Amino acid sequence: MDEKDNRHQYIFRRGGSLIMSLNGKVQMGTWEYIAPSNALLINRGPDIILLKHAFLESGLMVMKLDGQKDEPWVLINEKLVPDLDVERYLKTIFISKNQLKTGESSEGKKYYYSDPYDLGISSSTKFYDENLEPYNGKLGTLYPLQNAGSTGTPLKGVADYELEAGNLKKTIYRRPVSTKAGEFDLESVNSIGLNIGDKVLSNNSPVPDGKYRVIRDTDNFSIRVKGGHITKTLTKGEIGIIIFIGGLLLFVLILVVANAPR
Predict the structure, then answer these.
(1) Running DSSP on this structure, what letter comes out for residue 105?
(2) What gap in Å lies between CA 195 and CA 188, rounded to an integer?
(3) What is the C-alpha separation between 170 and 188, in angstroms, rounded?
(4) Distance separating alpha carbons of residues 160 and 166, to the nearest angstrom
(5) Do 161 and 191 form a contact (C-beta atoms < 8 A)?
(6) Do the bridges between strand 39-43 and strand 48-56 make them parallel or antiparallel, or are there none, so unpaired?
(7) pLDDT score at 242
(8) How far is CA 252 from CA 21, 46, 238, 246, 260, in A?
């Protein structure tokens, strides 16, 4: 099909004869394959052209006029691509050769990613948009993620992938964290634990500054939050030490007061 939607059909016959049909109107010509140049020499009557090989698949072949960068000739095998949909055929070939899987973001966008060994998304994963162009920008998607949890079980939540030219630049994990003050959302570059610098949000807004006791968390017991970020984490052991030191200081103070001269 040319730029004016005219249908060109070329039938290459053994012996070098060529049948050329333009919208059903036939003209005879000749063809010759020149092996050293990997090219086709076509005599169309009014002109003779030399087509150089650019791309070959079982269902199609892309040729270019020798010396020309643009205007490729796409020759399609109707037996393998009966609908002549070149874009769909090439897309299928690309997905198959790169062993791509499909995913859907939390916003309903379809994307493709490489995962040939069924390991989930990792730093080596390549991402493509629905047009199979390298993905740029943020991509919100659901788990699973490789090594998401310490027990190997995928965590509940969402991960925002920051992508550059289809490569994973940064992963921001979003998951719920339960505290005595209620359930908050945690944004972190780590998939597990509570870490200094993590964002703590409530209804997409930073939580008020203060200290929060965490419940049902194996790593930390309480966190200090300032400006919507964790500034300090206190484990059960650390809190126990603080209580012990505080009690000891209070005991010493009482002794000092009791023995002070009156």
Answers:
(1) B
(2) 8
(3) 11
(4) 14
(5) no
(6) antiparallel
(7) 47
(8) 104, 109, 21, 10, 12
* Alpha helices per DSSP H over 4-155: 86-97
Q: Tell me the per-residue pLDDT of 48-96, one tens digit each, with 9 for 90 and over.
A: 999 888 888 888 888 888 877 667 788 888 888 888 888 888 899 899 8
Provide, rounded to the nearest whole percent, the portion of the chain with pLDDT above 70: 79
Check if the beta carbon of residue 201 is closer than 8 Å to that of residue 191: no
Identity of residue 18: L
Question: Can you tell me whether residue 138 is helix, strand or coil?
Answer: strand
Cα–Cα distance for residue pair 235/139, rounded to 1 Å: 33
Tracing tokens 């796409």 back to the chain, one arrives at 74
Count of beta carbons in the 10 Å neighbourhood of residue 248 = 10
Assess contact for 208 and 221: CB atoms under 8 A. no
Question: How many Å apart are CA 142 and CA 105, to the nearest integer?
Answer: 7
Q: Which letter does DSSP use for residue 207 in this model? A: P
